[in-house]
Write a structure and sequence with these properties.
4-stranded antiparallel β-sheet; 436 residues; alpha+beta
Protein backbone atom coordinates (compact mmCIF):
# COMPACT_ATOMS: atom_id res chain seq x y z
CA UNK A 1 0.00 0.00 0.00
CA UNK A 2 1.67 3.24 -1.05
CA UNK A 3 1.97 5.72 1.76
CA UNK A 4 4.15 8.77 1.78
CA UNK A 5 5.35 10.23 5.07
CA UNK A 6 5.04 14.00 5.17
CA UNK A 7 7.70 16.20 6.69
CA UNK A 8 7.07 19.84 7.30
CA UNK A 9 6.42 22.48 9.88
CA UNK A 10 4.88 20.82 12.92
CA UNK A 11 2.66 23.75 13.81
CA UNK A 12 1.49 24.14 10.21
CA UNK A 13 0.56 20.47 10.01
CA UNK A 14 -1.30 20.63 13.32
CA UNK A 15 -3.22 23.66 12.12
CA UNK A 16 -4.05 21.93 8.82
CA UNK A 17 -5.41 18.92 10.70
CA UNK A 18 -7.46 21.10 13.04
CA UNK A 19 -8.84 23.03 10.07
CA UNK A 20 -9.77 19.76 8.35
CA UNK A 21 -11.70 18.60 11.41
CA UNK A 22 -13.54 21.91 11.69
CA UNK A 23 -14.43 21.91 7.98
CA UNK A 24 -15.60 18.32 8.20
CA UNK A 25 -17.92 19.11 11.09
CA UNK A 26 -19.45 22.14 9.36
CA UNK A 27 -21.71 24.59 11.09
CA UNK A 28 -22.12 23.73 14.76
CA UNK A 29 -25.75 24.79 14.61
CA UNK A 30 -26.47 21.81 12.35
CA UNK A 31 -26.87 18.47 14.17
CA UNK A 32 -23.90 16.16 13.74
CA UNK A 33 -24.28 13.05 11.58
CA UNK A 34 -24.43 9.87 13.59
CA UNK A 35 -22.86 6.62 12.46
CA UNK A 36 -26.28 5.00 12.61
CA UNK A 37 -27.66 7.62 10.23
CA UNK A 38 -24.86 6.97 7.75
CA UNK A 39 -25.24 3.22 8.10
CA UNK A 40 -29.02 3.29 7.67
CA UNK A 41 -29.48 6.04 5.09
CA UNK A 42 -26.29 5.77 3.02
CA UNK A 43 -26.21 2.02 2.67
CA UNK A 44 -24.85 1.94 -0.86
CA UNK A 45 -21.93 4.15 0.13
CA UNK A 46 -21.27 1.92 3.14
CA UNK A 47 -21.39 -1.16 0.92
CA UNK A 48 -18.97 0.31 -1.59
CA UNK A 49 -16.49 1.29 1.12
CA UNK A 50 -16.66 -2.20 2.63
CA UNK A 51 -16.04 -3.79 -0.77
CA UNK A 52 -13.14 -1.57 -1.78
CA UNK A 53 -11.80 -1.45 1.76
CA UNK A 54 -11.85 -5.25 1.78
CA UNK A 55 -13.43 -5.45 5.21
CA UNK A 56 -17.05 -6.29 6.03
CA UNK A 57 -18.01 -4.05 8.93
CA UNK A 58 -20.86 -1.53 8.38
CA UNK A 59 -20.07 0.35 11.60
CA UNK A 60 -16.42 0.91 10.70
CA UNK A 61 -17.36 1.79 7.12
CA UNK A 62 -19.80 4.41 8.41
CA UNK A 63 -17.07 5.80 10.66
CA UNK A 64 -14.65 5.94 7.75
CA UNK A 65 -17.20 7.81 5.60
CA UNK A 66 -17.77 10.32 8.37
CA UNK A 67 -14.05 10.77 9.01
CA UNK A 68 -13.21 11.10 5.32
CA UNK A 69 -15.67 13.93 4.76
CA UNK A 70 -17.73 11.69 2.47
CA UNK A 71 -14.76 10.86 0.22
CA UNK A 72 -15.41 7.17 -0.46
CA UNK A 73 -11.94 6.41 -1.81
CA UNK A 74 -10.39 7.97 1.28
CA UNK A 75 -12.86 6.01 3.42
CA UNK A 76 -11.83 2.78 1.70
CA UNK A 77 -8.21 3.71 2.36
CA UNK A 78 -8.96 4.17 6.08
CA UNK A 79 -10.74 0.83 6.24
CA UNK A 80 -7.98 -0.99 4.32
CA UNK A 81 -5.37 0.50 6.65
CA UNK A 82 -7.32 -0.57 9.75
CA UNK A 83 -7.69 -4.04 8.27
CA UNK A 84 -3.94 -4.52 8.30
CA UNK A 85 -3.94 -4.18 12.10
CA UNK A 86 -6.39 -7.03 12.66
CA UNK A 87 -5.25 -10.57 13.52
CA UNK A 88 -6.17 -13.25 10.99
CA UNK A 89 -7.01 -16.45 12.77
CA UNK A 90 -9.01 -18.48 10.26
CA UNK A 91 -10.08 -18.75 6.67
CA UNK A 92 -13.80 -19.17 6.22
CA UNK A 93 -15.29 -22.04 4.32
CA UNK A 94 -16.53 -21.26 0.79
CA UNK A 95 -19.72 -19.24 1.03
CA UNK A 96 -22.78 -21.19 -0.08
CA UNK A 97 -24.62 -18.67 -2.22
CA UNK A 98 -27.07 -21.40 -3.26
CA UNK A 99 -28.47 -21.06 0.26
CA UNK A 100 -28.65 -17.28 0.14
CA UNK A 101 -31.58 -15.60 1.88
CA UNK A 102 -32.62 -13.85 -1.29
CA UNK A 103 -33.88 -10.26 -1.21
CA UNK A 104 -33.63 -9.76 -4.95
CA UNK A 105 -33.12 -12.22 -7.76
CA UNK A 106 -33.59 -11.64 -11.48
CA UNK A 107 -32.62 -13.39 -14.68
CA UNK A 108 -32.52 -11.82 -18.12
CA UNK A 109 -32.35 -15.12 -20.02
CA UNK A 110 -35.32 -17.10 -18.67
CA UNK A 111 -38.63 -15.43 -17.84
CA UNK A 112 -39.76 -18.43 -15.83
CA UNK A 113 -36.52 -19.05 -14.00
CA UNK A 114 -36.54 -22.04 -11.62
CA UNK A 115 -37.41 -20.66 -8.18
CA UNK A 116 -39.03 -17.55 -9.63
CA UNK A 117 -37.85 -14.00 -9.95
CA UNK A 118 -37.89 -11.48 -7.10
CA UNK A 119 -37.69 -7.81 -7.99
CA UNK A 120 -36.77 -6.49 -4.55
CA UNK A 121 -35.57 -2.90 -4.18
CA UNK A 122 -34.12 -1.45 -7.38
CA UNK A 123 -33.60 1.82 -9.22
CA UNK A 124 -34.31 0.10 -12.53
CA UNK A 125 -37.94 1.14 -12.83
CA UNK A 126 -37.78 4.49 -11.05
CA UNK A 127 -37.88 7.74 -13.00
CA UNK A 128 -34.59 9.59 -12.66
CA UNK A 129 -36.32 12.75 -11.44
CA UNK A 130 -35.40 14.69 -8.36
CA UNK A 131 -37.85 14.02 -5.56
CA UNK A 132 -38.22 17.37 -3.86
CA UNK A 133 -40.29 15.78 -1.12
CA UNK A 134 -37.04 14.44 0.28
CA UNK A 135 -35.88 18.00 0.92
CA UNK A 136 -38.37 18.09 3.77
CA UNK A 137 -37.47 16.50 7.08
CA UNK A 138 -39.15 13.68 8.95
CA UNK A 139 -40.01 11.70 5.83
CA UNK A 140 -41.51 8.33 6.63
CA UNK A 141 -41.96 5.56 4.10
CA UNK A 142 -43.48 2.18 4.83
CA UNK A 143 -42.22 -1.04 3.31
CA UNK A 144 -44.85 -3.00 1.30
CA UNK A 145 -46.60 -5.88 2.98
CA UNK A 146 -48.23 -9.08 1.85
CA UNK A 147 -51.97 -9.64 1.68
CA UNK A 148 -51.77 -10.99 5.19
CA UNK A 149 -50.20 -7.78 6.41
CA UNK A 150 -46.77 -9.27 6.92
CA UNK A 151 -43.74 -7.38 5.71
CA UNK A 152 -42.22 -8.79 2.54
CA UNK A 153 -39.25 -10.80 3.71
CA UNK A 154 -36.33 -12.43 1.97
CA UNK A 155 -36.73 -15.91 0.56
CA UNK A 156 -35.18 -18.44 2.91
CA UNK A 157 -35.60 -21.50 0.72
CA UNK A 158 -32.65 -22.70 -1.33
CA UNK A 159 -33.01 -21.39 -4.87
CA UNK A 160 -31.40 -23.28 -7.77
CA UNK A 161 -29.11 -21.36 -10.04
CA UNK A 162 -30.42 -20.37 -13.43
CA UNK A 163 -27.21 -21.46 -15.12
CA UNK A 164 -27.79 -24.99 -13.84
CA UNK A 165 -30.46 -25.28 -16.53
CA UNK A 166 -27.82 -24.70 -19.19
CA UNK A 167 -25.28 -26.87 -17.40
CA UNK A 168 -27.67 -29.84 -17.39
CA UNK A 169 -27.67 -29.71 -21.20
CA UNK A 170 -23.92 -29.17 -21.34
CA UNK A 171 -24.45 -25.78 -22.96
CA UNK A 172 -22.19 -23.77 -20.68
CA UNK A 173 -18.50 -24.37 -20.14
CA UNK A 174 -16.76 -24.56 -16.80
CA UNK A 175 -14.14 -21.98 -16.00
CA UNK A 176 -10.54 -23.07 -16.19
CA UNK A 177 -9.19 -23.75 -12.71
CA UNK A 178 -6.45 -26.29 -13.28
CA UNK A 179 -4.01 -24.04 -15.10
CA UNK A 180 -0.36 -24.13 -14.00
CA UNK A 181 -0.53 -20.64 -12.54
CA UNK A 182 -3.39 -21.69 -10.30
CA UNK A 183 -1.53 -24.74 -9.09
CA UNK A 184 1.57 -22.70 -8.44
CA UNK A 185 -0.30 -20.08 -6.49
CA UNK A 186 -2.10 -22.70 -4.47
CA UNK A 187 1.13 -24.41 -3.56
CA UNK A 188 2.73 -21.20 -2.36
CA UNK A 189 -0.36 -19.86 -0.62
CA UNK A 190 0.22 -18.79 2.96
CA UNK A 191 -1.08 -21.08 5.69
CA UNK A 192 -2.42 -19.76 8.94
CA UNK A 193 -1.56 -21.78 12.05
CA UNK A 194 -5.12 -22.54 13.00
CA UNK A 195 -6.57 -22.45 9.52
CA UNK A 196 -8.71 -25.20 8.11
CA UNK A 197 -7.26 -24.62 4.64
CA UNK A 198 -4.89 -27.51 5.22
CA UNK A 199 -7.91 -29.71 4.53
CA UNK A 200 -8.44 -28.20 1.12
CA UNK A 201 -6.68 -29.78 -1.84
CA UNK A 202 -5.83 -26.44 -3.38
CA UNK A 203 -5.91 -23.41 -1.06
CA UNK A 204 -6.78 -20.23 -2.91
CA UNK A 205 -4.30 -17.48 -3.53
CA UNK A 206 -4.51 -14.77 -0.84
CA UNK A 207 -3.77 -11.33 -2.26
CA UNK A 208 -3.73 -9.87 1.27
CA UNK A 209 -0.68 -11.97 2.16
CA UNK A 210 1.08 -12.55 -1.16
CA UNK A 211 2.35 -10.19 -3.79
CA UNK A 212 0.42 -10.39 -7.01
CA UNK A 213 2.33 -11.10 -10.19
CA UNK A 214 1.15 -11.86 -13.69
CA UNK A 215 0.23 -14.23 -15.19
CA UNK A 216 -1.85 -15.19 -12.20
CA UNK A 217 -4.68 -17.56 -11.40
CA UNK A 218 -8.39 -16.85 -11.66
CA UNK A 219 -8.92 -16.99 -7.89
CA UNK A 220 -6.36 -14.20 -7.44
CA UNK A 221 -7.94 -12.23 -10.26
CA UNK A 222 -11.38 -12.50 -8.70
CA UNK A 223 -10.06 -11.33 -5.34
CA UNK A 224 -8.43 -8.37 -6.99
CA UNK A 225 -11.59 -7.48 -8.90
CA UNK A 226 -13.78 -7.87 -5.81
CA UNK A 227 -12.03 -4.96 -4.10
CA UNK A 228 -11.23 -2.99 -7.24
CA UNK A 229 -12.46 0.53 -7.79
CA UNK A 230 -16.05 0.46 -9.01
CA UNK A 231 -15.49 3.26 -11.52
CA UNK A 232 -12.47 1.56 -13.06
CA UNK A 233 -14.29 -1.75 -13.39
CA UNK A 234 -17.32 -0.03 -14.87
CA UNK A 235 -15.23 1.67 -17.55
CA UNK A 236 -13.42 -1.56 -18.38
CA UNK A 237 -16.71 -3.45 -18.60
CA UNK A 238 -18.18 -0.72 -20.78
CA UNK A 239 -15.18 -0.87 -23.10
CA UNK A 240 -15.75 -4.58 -23.70
CA UNK A 241 -19.34 -3.92 -24.68
CA UNK A 242 -18.25 -1.19 -27.12
CA UNK A 243 -16.02 -3.62 -28.95
CA UNK A 244 -12.68 -3.61 -27.11
CA UNK A 245 -12.90 -7.30 -26.37
CA UNK A 246 -16.11 -8.31 -28.15
CA UNK A 247 -17.90 -9.08 -24.92
CA UNK A 248 -21.66 -8.56 -25.02
CA UNK A 249 -23.19 -11.04 -22.57
CA UNK A 250 -26.58 -11.83 -21.07
CA UNK A 251 -27.31 -11.43 -17.38
CA UNK A 252 -27.80 -15.08 -16.48
CA UNK A 253 -28.64 -14.36 -12.86
CA UNK A 254 -28.30 -11.51 -10.38
CA UNK A 255 -29.04 -12.30 -6.78
CA UNK A 256 -28.80 -10.14 -3.66
CA UNK A 257 -29.19 -11.41 -0.13
CA UNK A 258 -27.56 -12.69 3.00
CA UNK A 259 -25.21 -15.64 3.23
CA UNK A 260 -23.80 -17.40 6.23
CA UNK A 261 -20.07 -17.27 6.94
CA UNK A 262 -18.74 -20.49 8.43
CA UNK A 263 -15.34 -21.39 9.83
CA UNK A 264 -14.07 -24.80 10.85
CA UNK A 265 -11.44 -24.43 13.61
CA UNK A 266 -8.99 -27.29 13.50
CA UNK A 267 -9.04 -27.59 17.30
CA UNK A 268 -12.84 -28.07 17.29
CA UNK A 269 -13.20 -30.19 14.20
CA UNK A 270 -16.67 -28.95 13.32
CA UNK A 271 -18.10 -25.95 11.55
CA UNK A 272 -19.20 -22.80 13.38
CA UNK A 273 -21.32 -20.05 11.82
CA UNK A 274 -19.85 -16.69 12.79
CA UNK A 275 -21.87 -14.12 10.79
CA UNK A 276 -24.41 -13.35 8.12
CA UNK A 277 -23.24 -10.92 5.47
CA UNK A 278 -25.02 -9.24 2.57
CA UNK A 279 -23.59 -9.91 -0.87
CA UNK A 280 -24.44 -9.41 -4.52
CA UNK A 281 -23.66 -12.23 -6.93
CA UNK A 282 -23.77 -12.07 -10.72
CA UNK A 283 -23.34 -14.77 -13.36
CA UNK A 284 -23.06 -13.63 -16.94
CA UNK A 285 -23.61 -15.85 -19.98
CA UNK A 286 -21.28 -14.92 -22.80
CA UNK A 287 -20.65 -15.76 -26.41
CA UNK A 288 -20.25 -19.41 -27.14
CA UNK A 289 -17.05 -21.18 -28.03
CA UNK A 290 -16.30 -24.48 -29.65
CA UNK A 291 -13.66 -26.52 -31.43
CA UNK A 292 -13.07 -29.99 -32.85
CA UNK A 293 -12.59 -31.31 -29.33
CA UNK A 294 -15.13 -29.14 -27.47
CA UNK A 295 -18.77 -28.84 -28.62
CA UNK A 296 -20.24 -25.32 -28.90
CA UNK A 297 -21.10 -23.92 -25.51
CA UNK A 298 -21.56 -20.64 -23.71
CA UNK A 299 -18.84 -19.17 -21.52
CA UNK A 300 -19.43 -17.32 -18.28
CA UNK A 301 -18.19 -14.46 -16.15
CA UNK A 302 -18.59 -14.15 -12.39
CA UNK A 303 -18.91 -11.25 -9.96
CA UNK A 304 -19.36 -11.09 -6.19
CA UNK A 305 -19.23 -8.05 -3.93
CA UNK A 306 -20.11 -7.10 -0.38
CA UNK A 307 -23.55 -5.56 0.12
CA UNK A 308 -26.06 -4.47 -2.49
CA UNK A 309 -23.90 -3.41 -5.41
CA UNK A 310 -25.22 -4.73 -8.70
CA UNK A 311 -23.28 -2.32 -10.89
CA UNK A 312 -19.96 -3.36 -9.39
CA UNK A 313 -20.80 -7.08 -9.50
CA UNK A 314 -21.96 -6.90 -13.13
CA UNK A 315 -18.86 -4.99 -14.17
CA UNK A 316 -16.72 -7.51 -12.31
CA UNK A 317 -18.37 -10.38 -14.18
CA UNK A 318 -17.77 -8.69 -17.52
CA UNK A 319 -14.12 -8.05 -16.75
CA UNK A 320 -13.68 -11.57 -15.36
CA UNK A 321 -14.90 -12.95 -18.67
CA UNK A 322 -12.65 -10.60 -20.62
CA UNK A 323 -9.63 -11.74 -18.60
CA UNK A 324 -10.34 -15.34 -19.59
CA UNK A 325 -9.42 -14.47 -23.17
CA UNK A 326 -6.01 -16.11 -22.95
CA UNK A 327 -7.44 -19.33 -21.48
CA UNK A 328 -10.04 -19.48 -24.24
CA UNK A 329 -7.56 -18.84 -27.02
CA UNK A 330 -8.99 -15.45 -27.96
CA UNK A 331 -7.05 -12.54 -29.37
CA UNK A 332 -6.12 -9.99 -26.71
CA UNK A 333 -6.90 -6.69 -28.37
CA UNK A 334 -8.75 -4.77 -25.66
CA UNK A 335 -7.58 -3.13 -22.41
CA UNK A 336 -10.01 -5.20 -20.34
CA UNK A 337 -8.38 -8.40 -21.65
CA UNK A 338 -4.93 -7.30 -20.52
CA UNK A 339 -4.41 -8.95 -17.15
CA UNK A 340 -1.44 -6.83 -16.11
CA UNK A 341 -3.19 -3.59 -17.05
CA UNK A 342 -6.43 -4.42 -15.25
CA UNK A 343 -5.06 -5.96 -12.07
CA UNK A 344 -2.39 -3.36 -11.42
CA UNK A 345 -4.52 -0.31 -12.17
CA UNK A 346 -7.83 -1.29 -10.60
CA UNK A 347 -6.91 -0.76 -6.95
CA UNK A 348 -7.89 2.80 -6.07
CA UNK A 349 -5.91 2.71 -2.82
CA UNK A 350 -2.70 2.10 -4.75
CA UNK A 351 -3.67 4.53 -7.50
CA UNK A 352 -4.67 7.44 -5.28
CA UNK A 353 -1.51 7.15 -3.23
CA UNK A 354 0.74 7.25 -6.27
CA UNK A 355 -1.16 10.10 -7.91
CA UNK A 356 -1.48 12.22 -4.77
CA UNK A 357 2.17 11.90 -3.82
CA UNK A 358 2.75 14.50 -6.54
CA UNK A 359 1.44 17.10 -4.05
CA UNK A 360 4.47 16.57 -1.85
CA UNK A 361 7.62 18.69 -2.27
CA UNK A 362 9.68 17.77 -5.33
CA UNK A 363 12.01 20.78 -5.10
CA UNK A 364 15.23 18.88 -5.81
CA UNK A 365 13.78 16.82 -8.65
CA UNK A 366 12.27 19.86 -10.32
CA UNK A 367 15.46 21.91 -9.88
CA UNK A 368 17.41 19.19 -11.68
CA UNK A 369 14.95 19.21 -14.58
CA UNK A 370 14.94 23.01 -14.60
CA UNK A 371 18.72 23.09 -14.96
CA UNK A 372 18.49 20.50 -17.73
CA UNK A 373 15.93 22.39 -19.76
CA UNK A 374 17.90 25.64 -19.36
CA UNK A 375 20.97 23.93 -20.72
CA UNK A 376 18.94 22.53 -23.63
CA UNK A 377 17.56 26.00 -24.32
CA UNK A 378 21.04 27.47 -24.43
CA UNK A 379 22.15 24.76 -26.83
CA UNK A 380 19.10 25.36 -28.95
CA UNK A 381 19.62 29.14 -29.07
CA UNK A 382 23.26 28.72 -30.00
CA UNK A 383 22.33 26.29 -32.78
CA UNK A 384 19.71 28.68 -34.15
CA UNK A 385 22.11 31.62 -34.00
CA UNK A 386 24.78 29.63 -35.81
CA UNK A 387 22.26 28.65 -38.46
CA UNK A 388 21.21 32.30 -38.94
CA UNK A 389 24.83 33.54 -38.94
CA UNK A 390 24.34 35.64 -35.83
CA UNK A 391 26.80 35.80 -32.96
CA UNK A 392 25.13 33.89 -30.11
CA UNK A 393 24.58 35.67 -26.82
CA UNK A 394 24.70 34.00 -23.40
CA UNK A 395 21.75 35.16 -21.35
CA UNK A 396 22.14 34.84 -17.62
CA UNK A 397 19.96 32.00 -16.42
CA UNK A 398 17.78 32.94 -13.46
CA UNK A 399 17.99 30.79 -10.37
CA UNK A 400 14.26 30.76 -9.69
CA UNK A 401 11.00 31.37 -11.57
CA UNK A 402 10.42 34.50 -9.44
CA UNK A 403 13.52 36.23 -10.83
CA UNK A 404 12.82 35.41 -14.47
CA UNK A 405 9.99 37.87 -14.86
CA UNK A 406 8.19 35.76 -17.47
CA UNK A 407 7.58 32.07 -18.08
CA UNK A 408 9.92 30.36 -20.53
CA UNK A 409 8.57 29.79 -24.03
CA UNK A 410 9.41 26.52 -25.74
CA UNK A 411 9.24 28.19 -29.17
CA UNK A 412 11.14 31.35 -28.22
CA UNK A 413 8.63 33.49 -30.11
CA UNK A 414 9.21 32.04 -33.59
CA UNK A 415 7.87 29.12 -35.58
CA UNK A 416 11.09 27.14 -35.62
CA UNK A 417 10.45 23.53 -34.75
CA UNK A 418 11.60 22.56 -31.30
CA UNK A 419 13.89 19.53 -31.27
CA UNK A 420 12.44 16.33 -29.85
CA UNK A 421 13.52 16.13 -26.20
CA UNK A 422 11.53 13.07 -25.29
CA UNK A 423 14.66 10.99 -25.02
CA UNK A 424 15.89 13.34 -22.30
CA UNK A 425 12.71 13.20 -20.23
CA UNK A 426 12.99 11.40 -16.91
CA UNK A 427 11.77 7.82 -16.86
CA UNK A 428 8.40 7.30 -15.18
CA UNK A 429 8.96 5.80 -11.76
CA UNK A 430 7.13 2.93 -10.21
CA UNK A 431 5.22 3.11 -6.90
CA UNK A 432 8.18 1.53 -5.14
CA UNK A 433 10.27 4.56 -6.05
CA UNK A 434 8.02 7.11 -4.40
CA UNK A 435 10.21 9.33 -2.24
CA UNK A 436 9.47 9.04 1.45
Amino acid sequence: MPYVAVKGGEQAIQNAEALLKAKRRGELAVPELSLEQIKQQMQLAVNRVMAEGSLYDPDLAALAIKQSWGDLVEAAFLLRAYRTTLPRLYYSEPVETDRMHIQRRISAIFKDAPGGQKLGSTFDYVHRLLDFKLAAENNQFSAPTTKLGDAIASTTEATPRVLNTLAQEGLIGATKSDDPACTQSATSSAQLPNSSTTQLPSPPFDITRQSLSTPTSRDARLQNLARADEGFLLSMAYSTQRGYGKNHPFAGEIRVGEVEVVICPEELGFEVAIADISVTEVQMVNQFKGSKQIPPQFTQGYGLTFGYNERKAMAMALVDRALQAKDLGEAIDGPAQNEEFVLFHSDNIEAQGFVQHLKLPHYIDFQAELNLIRQLRRNYDQAQAKQDGVEPTSPQAPDSPASSGHPPSPHNGDSTQVPNLDHLSPEPHSPSEVPA
